[in-house]
UniProtKB/TrEMBL annotation:
This is Diguanylate cyclase/phosphodiesterase. InterPro entries: Cyclic-di-GMP_PDE-like, EAL_dom, EAL_sf. One of its GO terms (molecular function) is cyclic-guanylate-specific phosphodiesterase activity. CDD domains: EAL. Pfam families: EAL. Residues 20-272 form the EAL domain.
Length: 272
């Protein structure tokens, strides 16, 4: 059974058994039982491999099903209460890990935390960021909130009442999986984001396909002129990294750079 088949089966389990092993209720129980953990994947500059950030990735260490990636329990994550609880868990964990980096003398990296777009309308989120950063003696500017590219994300990122509390703290916004179908280039002209993470489909055909190279080059040049920090996701080969390194302001993330690590120090040490 390949990975995609396993995810499909797990999603079916979650949708057909609302009170079952992957339900929102079970996920919240898992949080209380200490079944969740955070893995960290570096984001580095393509040209120099200088560290920019670590993306904080949730993992469910399910007692019956083993270690689950978010795609396996998406039904639970689509529940607002569960998504909020998991986001707060990731935030608290990441802040503790960032504080540990500082105490060990390792250069701090920005922590990118995935949230649901609707959470920007929740005043508690900005308060939680302030509390977690204060408790761990780190600056809120080390936090970046990643929103998956959805129609809702495009809407909320254009509402200053939602984004202003975070901007005052120095918290950055990133749009994840850009190019997967919901946002338009026109939207980027007014949206309140600093980082664009390109969907892995853009790099998949590089460098073998001339068309893929031309398309990605054009997008990188456009986003650079618009002032966005650009991360190319899904870098899997040396050839892809070499091709991207020609673009001096591009950042990369993917298995060729580093796989997610359960300890943040292990994730960032090769790039310090």
């Amino acid at each position: 059974m390949n990975g995609r088949e396993r995810v499909d089966i797990l999603r079916t389990m979650a949708s057909t058994h609302p009170g079952g092993s992957l339900s929102p209720q079970r996920a919240r129980e898992g949080l209380r039982n200490g079944e969740f953990a955070v893995a960290y994947q570096p984001v580095v500059k393509a040209k120099t491999l200088d560290l920019l950030a670590v993306e904080c990735l949730i993992r469910w260490q399910h007692p019956e099903l083993g270690v689950l990636l978010p795609g396996s329990f998406m039904t639970a994550l689509e529940d607002a209460v569960t998504a909020r609880a998991i986001s707060y868990f990731v935030l608290e964990t990441a802040c503790r890990q960032l504080a540990g980096l500082q105490h060990s003398g390792v250069s701090s990296a920005r922590a990118a935390i995935n949230i649901q777009p609707s959470q920007l309308a929740d005043k508690e989120l900005s308060e939680r960021i302030v509390e977690a950063c204060s408790r761990n003696q780190i600056e809120p500017s080390l936090i970046e909130l990643e929103l998956l590219e959805t129609e809702n994300a495009s809407q909320v990122l254009n509402v200053s009442d939602y984004t202003r509390p975070f901007e005052k703290l120095g918290v950055r916004f990133a749009l994840d999986d850009f190019g997967s179908g919901y946002s338009s280039l026109a939207m980027l002209g007014s949206t309140r984001i600093q980082t664009i993470k390109l969907d892995r489909a853009f790099i998949a055909g590089v460098p073998a396909s001339t068309r893929a190279c031309t398309l990605l080059t054009s997008i990188l040049q456009l986003l650079d002129r618009m002032g966005f920090l650009v991360v190319v996701e899904g870098v899997e080969t040396m050839e892809q990294l070499r091709w991207l390194s020609v673009h001096p302001e591009v950042f990369v993330q993917g298995y060729y750079i580093a796989r997610p690590q359960t300890a943040i120090l292990q994730a960032v040490r090769p790039f310090n």
